[in-house]
Structure formats: structure tokens, C-alpha cells
Amino acid sequence: MSVIQINNLTINHKKDLHPLLLDFSFTLNEGERAVIISEEGNGKSTLLKLIYDASLVSDYVEYTGEILTQGSILAYLPQEFPAGKKDSSVYEYCLDTPAFLEQTPKELAALASSLWLPGDFFYSDQPAGTLSGGEKVKLQIALLCMMQPDAFLLDEPSNDIDIETLEWLENFLNTCGKSVLYVSHDETLIERTANVIIHLEQVRRKTLPRTTVVHMPYREYMRSRQEAFCRQEQLAANERREYQKQMERFRRIEQKVESMQAGISRQDPHDGRLLKKKMKAVKSQERRFEKDRENMTEAPDMEQAIFVKICPQNRLPAGKTVLDFTCDRLTVSDRVLAGNIALRVTGAEKICIIGRNGIGKTTLLKQIAALLLPRPDLKVSYMPQDYADLLPEDLTPVEYLMRTGDKDEITTIRTYLGSMHYTADEMSHRTGELSGGQKAKLLFLKMSLEGANCLILDEPTRNFSPLSGPVIRQVLQEFPGAIISISHDRKYIREVCTKVYRLTENGLLPVPRPEI
Questions:
Q1: One domain, residues 367 and 508
Q2: What DSSP element (H or E) covers 91?
């Protein structure tokens, strides 16, 4: 039984009429778990919002086609916490969901416990806007569950939640028995939960949308997709090589006939007629070659991964002390989060700090950044969790990256932005109009241009697509400097980090690698 049916959906930006989707049809059936994947800025969140409530996107896109929800109850999780609710207490925020009042205190306590939240969390007077990113996601998911919907529409449910809650989310998606349509950049979550893949691409230099829908696990899809492209690329190359050989043979015959025609005597009309007939056959063969060329296999047109590289101006000596940090008490306002914290980093170590939401990881990283950024013996780049801390909203990407403003520098910057899949139009947009993934790319380019030898990264991979994520992990894995980071991305932790610490109330505890 279908829960959502989409027929011939086309979506265009109002500003520049750029198409995001073209004649897209899809059916979400009962119990299916469909993930929408794409490069940043290709319209994943827009599609999800449009399905839930067209008014959420009416100011910037227009669409044609049908979206039928069959009377289903849809529960929608937005990517951003509602700005108008940040001053409300947690309890007041919960009251906006009628189903909340139907829950008993015992049921609410059990739900809070399953999310690693205090038992009285839903009755808290704490302003919702002061919750950690992960706590906000948990609060919203809990309220959606109380609605008992027919389908969940989840926009980045894995953003900012800790590893324990990620594992809870995986189990929830696999066992809830409801239809789920979600957007995620967490490859591990996708691999473990999705049984339908919806892949949105922008091909032909981001001018033409292409959509692929398959009913198979993510790894199998990516493997079969790559194999199909490789086969098509090899076939196209073989056909073109054979065509070139045939054309070379044909040109030799054509030149020979033309030479014989030029040298024949007017007194020999018989041979002249024979050569004229032969030239006619040659021209006929040329037309056949051109027709064959039109029918040859085309080289595959696929959206390529981004390209970026971070090369330090000065490499760190192996034994250099990058950080020797101690903190007796880690606090936010008057609340003590953790104590007895000690962290030492030497040389090109790659450190990751994990821990439950709200324990103070971002607060700790900000203190480390404040300590290291002024150091004259280090070249430090910092990527905060909230990009607005570094990105002025009124500047364009080119303006943010340039130093001198001369013509050659601007040309170089635009080339770098192009390698990160920015279109010419996007290079002229204000950073405040960019998606989270586009902002993350901009910060990575800034690091690349600065030539840092020490990176401080708060959730560096969270806004990169499953297609860009492997590239970013490889860049950081090969980075010859020090990295001090926070992450819940299990692939990043396994592939990039040399040491992992868990932040607890009693300090930083080393984590054995097999546990991640």
C-alpha cells in the first residue's frame, strides 16, 4: 500500500529558473525506508518540505506535477530548530504537540531514558534554544513518535546526535514499522537502514537534473552504479578508438581517389567515369560513418566528487608539542559539565573527542581554539559547529576568500570554488543564502588557502553528502599536520583519527578503536 505518491514532479527555482527536479515520479510504500542523497544544494531539503507542506518552499521555488499523500499522517523533522521556539521552555515546546498531553509521566520517563536524556527532561524549564544540537534533535524526534504518524519525513535526523543516539535512531528506523523518507549525510546510518535510494544529480555542468530510484541497499547501489559507469566509459572509449581507425583508413582511400582524379587525362573519359563512380561510393561511406558516429555509446555523464587539498606551509616536527591542555572545571553559565580534563597533542596526531550530547564537547573545543589560534609557532584553522561564527552573511564566497582582490587571485579563487561544485551564480550569492554543505566547502577552501598545519574541527563532515564525504575523509587522513576534532561520524573516526577520547563528567577517557 502506498503512503506517498509523486507523479511527474518538476521543481524550478524562481530566481534563476534553474531546475532542481525534472519529471520525477516515485511511490513510498508502507514500511519502506527511503533515503534521498545528492551533492550539496541539489534540492534534498526542498523536496522533503514540498511533500510535507508546499507553503514552506513557495517563496523560492515553483512546481508542477502531483504529490498525493493518500490521507496519511506525516511527521516532519526540519533541518533547523524552529527559530520562534528558542525562548520557549522545553515543557512549553512540548505542549505545542497535542499528543504530548496523552502520554503518562512513566511513558515520558521511559522515552527520555531511551534517548539518554534525564527522566524529567520533557518537563524542564530550560529554554529550548539553549539545548545542545543533539538534544534539540532528540526532543523533536520524541514528539514525532508521540504523533503515531503513517510516515516520517526526516531532514538530517543524524545531525549533532551522539553515537549512542545514532545507534538508537538506527534501531528505531529499522523497527518502527512506519514508512520513512529521510535525508542524511551519515553513510553508516544509510548503509544500516535504507532499503530504497533516491539519488538526485545535476549533470551537464549542473544544468540538467537527473533522478535515480532503486530498491537496494546503499553499498550495493554505489557499487553497481560505479561498475555501470565504468562499463559505459570503456565501451564508449573502445567505439571511439575503432571509429578513429576506420576514419583514418577512409581518409587514405579518399585522398588516393582524389589524387587519381587530379592526374587523369581528359582524353580518357572511361577511367574518369570509373573514378567518379568510386568517389561517389567513398562519399556514401563517409555518410554511413557519420551516422554510425551519432549512434555510438556516449561517455557517461555523472556528477563528479568535489576536489580539495590542504597543504601546510610549514610541516610540524614529529615531537613538537601542539597542545598541553588542562582544565579543572568545564562550565556553561553556572553549570559544571565536566572536570579534571587533560589533553596533550604532539606532532601530526589526529585526535577525535566523542561523548554524549550536552557534555560540553563544543565548549571544550572553543577553549582549545582560543588557546591555539594566537600561537605564533603554529598556523591554525578553526571550523566551528555554527558556521555563522566565521562566515559574514553579507559577503559572497569570492569576497570571503580573497585577500588582495587582484584579478589573478579572483581567477584562482573561482577555479577553486568550481572544483567544489560552485556554479558561477552561487559564487555571487551571499554566504547567508548558501546551504550548510556549501558553507562547509567554503570553510575547507579557506583552510586550504591558509596553509594551516593544525586544524580544529567541530563536526567537520556533518554537512557533506555521502558522495563528498569520502573525499573529505581522505583529505583529512592525508593531511600532514595535527587535527583536534569533535565528531559522531563513525567512518571519519575509524578512517582519519589516530586517537579517540570520550568526554565524561570525570574528564577525557581514551577509547579503544574497536569500540567505534
A1: yes
A2: helix 90-95
**Each residue's pLDDT tens digit, 97-145:** 999 999 999 999 998 988 878 899 999 999 998 887 778 888 999 999 8
Copy the grid coordinates of residue 396: 559572497
Residue that terminates a domain, selected from 104, 123, 148: 148
Long-range (24+ apart) CB contacts under 8 A made by 223-229 are: 229/300, 229/302
Domain count, the chain: 3
Q: What is the pLDDT of residue 108?
A: 94
C-alpha–C-alpha distance, residues 465 and 498, integer Å? 24
485 shares its domain with 351 = yes
Same domain membership, residue 465 and residue 359:
yes
Side-chain half-sphere CA neighbours of 101 within 13 A: 5
Q: Per the structure block, which three cell numbers stand in for 469? A: 564525504
| Angular region, 374: left φ>0, alpha ψ -120 to 50, beta rest | alpha
Residue 118, domain extent: 81-148
Which pLDDT score is estimated for 138? 87
| Helical residues (DSSP H) of 314-401, grouped into ranges | 361-372, 397-401
Q: Which residues of the chain have pLDDT under 70?
A: 205, 232-233, 235-236, 239, 257, 261-280, 282-283, 285-287, 289-307, 513-516
Using CA atoms in the order 346, 352, 357, 358, what is the torsion angle rounded to 10 degrees? 10
The dihedral over CA atoms of 146, 149, 155, 158, expressed in degrees to the nearest 10, equals 50
Residue 481 sits in the same domain as residue 356: yes
Instruction: Check if the beta carbon of residue 307 is closer than 8 Å to that of residue 335.
Output: no
Asked if the structure places residue 467 within a domain, the reply is yes
Report if residue 302 sits inside a domain.
Answer: no
Q: What is the structure's pLDDT at 516?
A: 61
**C-beta separation of 9 from 67 below 8 A:** yes
Asked whether residue 500 is assigned to any structural domain, the reply reads yes
- The model carries a pTM of 0.78
Residue 132 lies in a domain: yes
